Every structure is written in structure tokens, then in C-alpha cells.
Write the C-alpha cells for this entry.
Amino acid sequence: EAGVAQSPRYKIIEKRQSVAFWCNPISGHATLYWYQQILGQGPKLLIQFQNNGVVDDSQLPKDRFSAERLKGVDSTLKIQPAKLEDSAVYLCASSLVAGTDNTGELFFGEGSRLTVL
Amino acid sequence: GNSVTQMEGPVTLSEEAFLTINCTYTATGYPSLFWYVQYPGEGLQLLLKATKADDKGSNKGFEATYRKETTSFHLEKGSVQVSDSAVYFCALRGNTPLVFGKGTRLSVIA
């Protein structure tokens, strides 16, 4: 079974530029998450989708971050304009069970490492 | 809100030593508790989980028991190997999506 796919693996940009990350979850997984992991910290949730609807985006900096999952399958996370503090690994995860079930496992991709200069 | 506190690293152990990584949590209701592991160059993967009080999760020789009275979920292994070198994250999932601790880096030397 294919895992969660993310691209690109690495990206270096200058501040004020824009960047987009792509995620394809495990087939059949209805719930998709984007997490931000800053060096030395645990992952922090940015946004959660259930199919193509947003369940939780309370920690997404909406002035510069946006995300979509138009057909309920793959997803794109965009940052525009980027700031130095956005340097982090952006992790995509998916789960089979509904977001309201707190027992289910999340499956993570390898992440996209962003460096903002 | 929900939160997880785990012991600061890095932790360096000799092969076959006993490992404990402490994890305590704050949550409303009845969360599920997880340990995730991140091996060098790889993504996060589930190590073990427990979904109710007094449950014990176990995998690959690692164990953790969900202790509601002490709000803890400490990770233990009786004899670590070099291949266990990784970053370990304690996490909980209650009425919110998965919340992680800061991670503990474990290095095992031969």
C-alpha cells in the first residue's frame, strides 16, 4: 500500500516569495492534516480536512497561509509571502477514520523542508 | 487546552540499557495517547497507542501504560539497541486533532 506522498522534499526561497506544497494521502483516507514542525519542536496542526471540507483551521495564519483539497483527495498548502519564521518541515498526514474518532492512527508523509532566507 | 509535556533530551544510552522517556498530559475528557517515532531521514510513524485508562500499548519491545491518576504515558524499553536511535514524540488526541510534545532525541551507542 502506498504511503502519504509529499513534494517537494526540499525548498529554499527568499522572504516575501511564495511556495506551494503538495500532498497525496493514502487511498481511501477521508481525513487529511497539515502540520508545521519547527526545528526542535513537536509538530503543530495547521489545518484539518474531512473530505473536501475544512474541519479545523484555527491555527492557520490566514494572512499568508492557504490550503485547499478541492476534490477531497490531494491537497495543496501555499505560503505567500513567506517570512523567515516559516522555515520548518511541513508534514502531511491522513487517517481512515473520521476526525471525531480519537483512537485512529495518523499516517505521515516524509515532509517538505522549507528554508526561508 | 490539551497539551503534552515530555522529558527534554537528548538522551544517550549504551546498548542494552533500560530506557524511560517521561510523558505527562493535560486534557479534558478521555483522550487517546500515542507514541510516534521519527528515525533519521524518515517520516513520523506510530510506535504504540492506548485508548483508555490502564491500557498498555506495546510494539518492538517498547511499552507504555495509560495512567489516568497520574496523567502519564511513560515510554519504556528493557534493552535498547543502536537501531532505536531516533526522536520520540508523545501525543494525545481528544476532542482536538493530534497534539504533540516537543520530542526526545535518543542516541544509543554500541
